[in-house]
Amino acid sequence: MIVKEICAKTVLSKSKVLDYTINPYVGCEHGCTYCYARFMKRFTGHQEKWGEFVDVKINAPSLLQREIKRKGAGRVWVSGICDPYQPLERKYELTRRCLEILLIQHQPVTVQTKSPLLLRDIELLKTSSDVEVTMSIATADENIRQIFEPKAPSIRERVEALEKLHSEGIKTSAMIAPLLPRAEGLAKELSGKVDSVLIDRMNYHYADWVYRKHKLEYAMTEEFFMQKRSELADAFRNKGVHYRLLF
Fold first, then answer.
1. Disulfide-capable partner of 60 in 24, 154, 243, 244 (CB 3.0 to 4.6 Å)?
2. Looking at residues 26-48, what average pLDDT do you find?
3. Residue 173: exposure state from Cβ atoms within 10 A (0-12, 13-18, ≥19)
4. Are 106 and 128 in contact (CB under 8 A)?
């Protein structure tokens, strides 16, 4: 893993998903095979494979402190193109320091991650009534998870983190994307642990070689996505879990 400390020029950016986004890191140690954020290599000059480099924006909190005062109110997505709680966050605490600034300014925040490390900051998250934590979980099958996300936390760790957050009164959701095989089992796993679920096919073809290697080509077809769309909708409806289909 190549880790480089850098000074960014800006940190609070306009987003097409929410109002703003903050990315304290460039690159991600999880290195998921399908990750759309690998497009960042075009702008950073990194020659390493995705998942083998991280640039640490060591000035992110000080930049945010200035930028938050100039820009209008709006919901902030933490983060759009990196996992804000990837393992390096344990050392650098950039996400925590940025959250402290946002919450002091009463900004609404959506944190998206795959990591139970965010439980470190649960007391901080509880200081605001306008915080939502979204956990990305693409399948209910650990073997499938290991094929596509070999360096990410386990499904069980993510579900348990959601359960803890939910029990503490923090708004929680799950993002099922990309839609991988055996995702339908997530209805049982997530019931009672989330306020809502988002479901998206979100296949950018970066992981096409993984599907082929493991003879999972059927899970790239339109028939697969339509079938799973229906199965997931029925399963979450039967469990009384609010869901949104994004495709």
1. 24
2. 84
3. buried
4. yes
